[in-house]
Amino acid sequence: MKKRKQEEYAAFQKTIMQRFCFIVFISVLLVIFLYMLLWKERLGDWTVRFLESFMRISQEQAFYIYHIYFRGYKEVFFGVAILFIFLFLLWYLFRWMTRYFKEIDQGIDALLEEGTGQIYLSPEMLPFERKLNAVKQELEKQTKERMNAEQRKDELVLYLAHDIRTPLTSVIGYLNLLEADPDMPVSQMEKYVHITLEKANRLEEMINEFFEITRFNSRQIQLSMEQIDLYYMMVQLCDEVSPVLEGRGNFVVLDLNEDLVIFADPDKIARVFSNIIKNAAAYSYPKTEIRICARKTEEDVLISFQNKGKTIPAEKLPLLFDKFYRLDSSRISDTGGTGLGLAIAKEILTLHGGEIQVRSERETVTFIVRLPLIFS
Question: Where do the domains of the chain lie, and which CATH numbers do they carry?
């Protein structure tokens, strides 16, 4: 890497050195030229002739003036001439190098402008040109990501308000009915109270999930890592979600070694697997299997959750892990989750140093979880 960077700047360094050597060479030539003039006394002849014509005096008078005031201070004139030559050539060199700084300054200005396109500099400044264009692309990328983040934040607030409003409206509606008719039959009153309690519990669950995803995003969660028997955990989770599965006639098939062990936070990783299984159950065809497989590599444990369901369009696959996203466009809270389950799963896996991916083809949806063997 270091060698490659040196090669990139070689052209610029070469140009600077060539120009500097040229300036030094010209300076030396001029100094030698002046010295030869003084040594051969040709400059004296020219000076005498100049004084004759300019001051309109005789040759003897001009030679006397030259001898007293010029030849007597030859070293002073010679030194001043050398100093003047070096200062002039040094000024020329700095003026030439300033052009590069102006180009860089213009390139920096272009970074702050939108829609300026590619930044171009002199050929010998190709490394600077590449860096400026790389910074420009990164700034444009960050600006786009910031705009997308703002848009997602606005959508999150809208979705949260919409999802909370549905159960809240039901709670208020049933409470109004109970208040309006105090002589309501006991059986009907019990029914309304039961529905109201269910809606209130649903509302509490949604708010808790919202605060939970916020905590994960702000990295306020501490992990308690330990070794976990993966097969035993999967058996327990399948028992817990069996009521959800039985409602649609789905069932789980485990295809993993019974001695497979992972290193993770048991409560939080169980939440990941539970959310994925519930999601698979919600979008599986009735009376189809959900197959859970796991295998161990040299560095990771790969766990896949496969179910039969409608093929998800490729452009929608990355959106599955966005907050409050659900495949059903109606977004009716009573018919689906909060849309936070997979988002929470992704955040938990990120904290573990793992990741989650999804594939969908030929009416088969597969979620693949990767967990590192060693947590760092």
Answer: 2-112 (no CATH), 148-217 (1.10.287.130), 226-372 (3.30.565.10)
